[in-house]
Write a structure and sequence with these properties.
4 domains, 4-stranded antiparallel β-sheet, alpha/beta, Dna Topoisomerase Vi A Subunit, Chain: A, domain 2, DNA Primase, Chain A, 659 residues, Rossmann fold, single chain
Length: 659
C-alpha cells in the first residue's frame, strides 16, 4: 500500500488506564511523529510519538505511555536483479506498520542496512520475460504486486521514497502497455502521476485505473480482499482512461468549490467629521511625516493603542453578554517597501516607552505565557512584526494548543483555566490585543481550508494595502516631532478615567441597524456561507467596537454618537473588501502553484533542508523539483546553499527558507 519511506502511518497506543489499544494516524515531524490526541478535543496535533523509543505523550492533557508492543514480521519481498541475483530483501512489519531493507553479509547473515544498495524494480525478472502485449499494472507496494500477480496479471512497483523515480528504469517498459493503479489518496495519486510522466515517453499505451469502492488510503489489495476478481479487474482495465486525459485534468487550475460573486463594497459610505484633537488624527500627524507607509497603517496602529489602554474598563452589552473593545489586527502588504513592520514599530515604541506594563513578551512557550499572565495580569498587547513566524512556531511541540488558548480568551471571559504538565494556571479577566504584519504572498501560500474556516484567523481584522495605497517615497523622513508626540500622549493618558458601559444613541443605532441588515443579507448568500462566513460574521461586533473607539478618540466619552458610528461603518466596509481580496485570491490556485507551495512548506518547516529530503517528501521527479526550486529562488522565497564535503568528494545541496 505504501512505498518504503513513508511520512504518515498508523500507530497503536497502549492506554494503561483503560487497558486497551487506541489507534491514531500520525505524520512525520522531524525525528518524531505527530497526531491528533484521541484523549482530548484536539484540533492542532499535540500528541508526540517516538517510534524508536516506542513511547507517546500528549502535553496538553499530560497523558502518555508506550506503544502497543506487538511488532512482528509479516512478509518479505525478494528483489532479484535482471541477472537473477538477490541483492536485498524488504521486510514488512505490523504493530506498528513499517518496512526495512536487509542484505546478506559475506558470512550469509542478514544485515539490516539500506546503505549503498542500488534499488531495483520489484519482480524485475518476471517483468523482463513478460510478453510486450501483456498489460503491466504499476502499483505502490510489494503486497499489491503479489496479489495482482496471483490474479494472473503482470505487476511491479518501485520501493523507495514516493516519487523518486530513476529515469533509466523507464527502459524496462519500452513499447509495453502499462496501467497505473494508485492508492486512494492524494499522495498515491501524485506518486503515480510522476511515474506516468516518465513512462509516457517510452510505452506503447499508458492507462490510469482508479478502482471503484475504495475507502480513503485503500489500495488494490483491499479491493481484492473484498472479493475483486480477475474478470472484474480486466473489465476495469479495458475501460480505464488514457493517462494523457488524467494528466490534462491534473494540470488544470484548481477550481473553487463555489463561485464567489464580487460584492458591492460601500467604502466611504458616509461623510464624516474628524475633530482637530481626535486622538487617531493626532497619532497620524505625529507618525505620518516619519514614514512613507500607507495611511491606513497609521490609523489601525492608533486604534490598537487606544484599544490596548482601555484595558477591559469599557464595554457594551449585546443581550446578556458584555463585549469589550479588544482588537486583533493583521497588516498586509505586497512587499517590504510598504513599511508595514516599521509602522508597527512606531506604535510598539510608544507602548514600550510610556506604557510598558501593557506590552506582552512576543516570544514565549505556552507555559511561560501562563506564568506571565499569572504574575503580571492578562491585559495588554502582543506585537509580532512577522505573523508567519508566530504561526510557524505554533507547529512546535512547546507551543501546541496556543492558538486555541488565545481564541478562547478573545471574548474576554471572567477567567480561563489551563492545565500544563503538573501545574494549573488560572488566567483572570483576560483582555488581549494582537497587532501583527505579513505579506500577501506569505498569506496566500500558507493558509489552508482549516485556517479559513477555523476560529483563530477569523478573529482578526485584515488591513490590506495595494499599489494604489502606496505613498510616494520619502528619501529623508522627518525626525519625530516631540511636540506632536507629547500632544498625542496627553490625550492618550486621559483614557485612564474612562470606565463603564458604552451607550449608543438613537441615531447611531439607526445607522448601525441599516448597515448590519445589509451586511447580514450578504452573509446569507450561498457564495459566502461556505467560505467566509466566519470572517464576515464577526464584523458586526467589530463595527460596534470600532464605533466605541472612534467616539473615545473624538471626545474621550463612551456615549456613542452618529459620527463615530459612520466612521465605524466606513471602516467595516473596507474590512469586508479586504477579506474578499484575501480569500478570493486564495481560491483557484493552479496545480503548479500548489506544488510550489508544497515545496515551500517543506523548506519553511525545517528552515534548511537537503535536496534529497525534498525529493523524498515532495513526491516529484528530480527535473520537476529543480524547476520549481529555481522559480522559488528567483522569487526570493528560498536560497541555495552548496557545501563541499571533501571526505566524500561531493557537494551537498541544501535550501534555506527566506523570511
Amino acid at each position: 500500500m505504501s512505498s518504503i519511506e513513508i511520512t504518515e502511518q498508523e500507530f497503536e497506543l497502549w492506554d494503561s488506564e483503560a487497558q486497551k489499544v487506541v489507534k491514531v494516524t500520525a505524520k512525520k515531524s522531524g525525528s518524531e511523529w505527530k497526531a491528533l490526541c484521541p484523549f482530548h478535543d484536539d484540533h492542532d496535533p499535540s500528541l508526540s510519538i517516538n517510534a524508536e523509543k516506542r513511547v507517546w505523550y500528549c502535553y496538553p492533557c499530560e497523558k502518555g505511555g508506550a506503544l502497543y508492543n506487538k511488532r512482528r514480521e509479516v512478509a518479505t519481498y525478494d528483489h532479484y536483479d535482471e541477472n537473477g541475483n538477490l541483492p536485498y530483501q524488504i521486510v514488512r512489519y505490523e504493530h506498528p506498520k513499517g518496512f526495512s531493507y536487509r542484505t546478506k553479509d559475506k558470512n550469509g547473515n542478514w544485515v539490516y542496512n539500506a546503505k549503498d544498495i542500488k534499488k531495483i524494480l520489484y519482480r524485475l525478472p518476471e517483468l523482463i520475460k513478460a510478453p510486450k502485449d501483456k498489460p503491466v499494472l504499476f502499483v505502490e507496494g510489494g503486497k499489491d504486486v503479489d496479489n495482482v500477480r496471483d490474479l494472473g496479471f503482470e505487476a511491479t512497483t518501485y520501493f523507495l521514497v514516493k516519487g523518486i523515480w530513476p529515469d533509466e528504469y523507464k527502459e524496462y517498459f519500452k513499447d509495453r502497455i502499462v496501467v497505473l493503479c494508485p492508492d486512494n489518496d492524494e499522495t498515491g495519486r501524485n506518486y503515480s502521476i510522476n511515474i506516468g510522466k516518465s513512462l509516457s515517453e517510452v510505452v506503447r499505451q499508458l492507462k490510469w485505473l482508479e478502482l471503484p469502492g475504495l475507502g480513503d488510503k485503500e489500495d488494490i489489495s483491499d479491493w481484492i480482499e473484498r472479493g475483486g476478481t480477475a474478470e472484474e479487474l480486466q473489465k476495469l482495465i479495458d475501460a480505464a482512461p488514457d493517462f494523457s486525459e488524467v494528466l490534462a485534468e491534473y494540470n488544470k487550475p484548481v477550481e473553487p468549490d463555489i463561485k464567489i460573486e464580487k460584492p458591492v463594497f460601500e467604502k466611504n459610505k458616509f461623510e464624516v467629521d474628524i475633530p482637530e484633537d481626535d486622538i487617531i488624527k493626532l497619532y497620524f500627524d505625529y507618525a505620518s511625516p516619519t514614514i512613507d507607509s500607507p495611511d491606513i497603517y497609521q490609523e489601525v496602529c492608533a486604534i490598537m493603542l487606544i484599544s490596548t489602554l482601555l484595558a477591559r474598563r469599557v464595554y457594551f452589552v449585546l443581550g446578556t453578554h458584555k463585549v469589550y473593545t479588544n482588537i486583533w489586527a493583521a497588516i498586509f502588504a505586497p512587499s517590504t517597501t510598504y513599511r508595514k513592520s516599521t509602522s508597527i514599530s512606531i506604535a510598539k515604541n510608544i507602548i514600550r516607552t510610556w506604557f510598558k506594563d501593557y506590552l506582552i513578551p512576543e516570544e514565549f512557550s505556552q507555559e511561560a505565557l501562563m506564568q506571565y499572565f499569572t504574575k503580571n495580569g492578562s491585559k495588554g498587547i502582543l506585537i509580532w512584526s512577522e505573523f508567519g513566524a508566530f504561526l510557524a512556531s505554533c507547529q512546535k511541540q512547546y507551543m501546541s494548543g496556543i492558538k486555541e488558548f488565545l481564541s478562547d480568551i478573545y471574548d474576554c471571559p471572567d477567567y480561563k483555566k489551563r492545565i500544563l504538565k503538573e501545574s494549573t494556571y488560572t488566567v483572570e479577566e483576560p483582555y488581549i490585543n494582537i497587532l501583527t504584519a505579513t505579506t500577501l504572498d506569505w498569506f496566500l501560500r500558507s493558509i489552508e481550508a482549516s485556517d479559513i474556516m477555523g476560529g483563530f484567523l477569523a478573529r482578526f481584522i485584515y488591513i490590506v494595502a495595494t499599489k494604489k495605497d502606496k505613498k510616494k517615497l520619502i528619501p529623508f523622513p522627518e525626525r519625530p516631532d516631540d511636540e506632536k508626540l507629547n500632544r498625542f500622549l496627553k490625550y492618550l493618558t486621559e483614557l485612564g478615567p474612562l470606565e463603564g458601559e458604552a451607550i449608543f444613541d438613537d441615531e447611531s443605532k439607526k445607522i448601525y441597524e441599516e448597515w448590519i441588515t445589509s451586511h447580514e443579507k450578504a452573509i446569507d448568500k450561498e457564495s459566502f456561507t461556505q467560505t467566509i462566513a466566519g470572517f464576515f460574521g464577526r464584523l458586526g461586533t467589530t463595527c460596534l467596537k470600532l464605533a466605541v473607539i472612534f467616539q473615545i478618540s473624538e471626545e474621550l466619552k463612551i456615549h456613542v454618537k452618529a459620527n463615530a458610528m459612520k466612521r465605524a461603518v466606513n471602516f467595516a466596509e473596507q474590512l469586508k473588501e479586504n477579506i474578499y481580496l484575501l480569500l478570493s485570491d486564495k481560491i483557484g490556485f493552479s496545480r503548479e502553484e500548489r506544488e510550489k507551495k508544497k515545496i515551500l512548506e517543506l523548506v519553511q518547516e525545517r528552515g534548511i533542508i537537503d535536496r534529497s529530503m525534498l525529493l523524498r517528501y515532495s513526491g516529484m521527479k528530480s527535473k520537476t523539483l529543480d524547476e520549481y526550486l529555481n522559480t522559488l529562488m528567483e522569487e526570493g522565497r528560498i536560497e541555495k546553499i552548496e557545501t563541499r564535503i571533501s571526505y566524500r568528494n561531493r557537494t551537498k545541496t541544501e535550501y534555506k527558507f527566506i523570511n
